[in-house]
Design a protein that fits this description.
By secondary structure, the chain is an alpha+beta fold. 40% of the residues lie in helices and 22% in strands. The strands form 3 sheets. It has a 4-stranded antiparallel beta sheet with strand order 1-8-3-6. A 4-stranded antiparallel beta sheet has the order 2-7-4-5. Strands 9-11-10 form a 3-stranded antiparallel beta sheet. Keywords: DNA-binding, Transcription, Transcription regulation. Residues 12-132 form the Cyclic nucleotide-binding domain.
């Protein structure tokens, strides 16, 4: 179990050695998901902490009227599910595979023993939680103060920056669909499509099927605020 946990070079556990985990009774397993398969549902009682090993996952909230809000997309190595593990509450979001994916699932008791034994892991966990609060605070401010166009520009700048492609000619080949973008920024698909078309006519981006090329990052970012 320890070998399975450490073999994937997970950022939360970077530098941790097998001997550091001696006596902790680590229990974990790999879970394989097909595209659009659900790992767990919103309000599930599961308490495991998960790590994305390969593929692409989305965290989604479903409103009472059935609207889908995409909170985040996980990158390889990201961990999630720690809130339910820490407080024993239900899952606050559903997690769905965007593509075929592999997830390392760590049992709650193993996770709690891990952060109790290793201060470096506990510190990284706290830092990630603070970073998430900052992101959610910024997103809330944007929803209150930004127009849909400004939110879309900010979203595009963020996704190019996260992929290391915030430069003229930067290309993303697996761009989220218009519906997914709309669910991420609190808009509807039709408005997102119209704004993207306008940005394309203005020469800021070039688009294709699931592909977007950044042509003028300065103008895109400058008018996002």
């Amino acid at each position: 179990m320890v070998d399975l946990l450490l073999r994937h070079d997970l950022p939360l556990l970077r530098g941790v050695r097998a001997e550091d985990l001696q006596g902790l009774d680590i229990r974990c397993h790999l879970s394989r998901l097909s595209a659009w398969e659900t790992l767990f549902q919103q309000s599930d009682a599961a308490r495991e902490v998960c790590f994305l090993v390969s593929g692409a996952l989305m965290a989604i909230h479903w409103t009472e009227d059935g609207r889908e809000i995409i909170f985040t997309r996980f990158q390889t190595g990201d961990h999630f599910g720690e809130l339910a593990a820490l407080d024993g509450g239900a899952r606050s979001l559903a997690v769905v595979a965007r593509d075929e994916s592999q997830v390392l699932v760590l049992e709650r008791d193993s996770f709690l023993r891990l952060i109790d034994r290793l201060p470096v892991v506990r510190d990284r966990l706290l830092q990630s939680l603070v970073a998430r609060i900052r992101v959610l605070t910024q997103r809330n401010l944007e929803l209150v103060t930004f127009s849909v166009e400004q939110r879309l520009r900010s979203y595009l700048v963020s996704i190019f920056f996260e992929r290391g492609r915030l430069h003229p000619g930067g290309v993303i080949e697996d761009m989220p669909t218009h519906s997914e973008i709309a669910a991420s920024i609190g808009a509807n698909r039709e408005i997102v499509s119209r704004v993207l078309s306008q940005l394309r006519r203005d020469g800021l981006i070039r688009t294709g099927r699931r592909r977007i090329e950044l042509r003028d990052p300065g103008r895109l970012a400058g008018e996002a605020a």
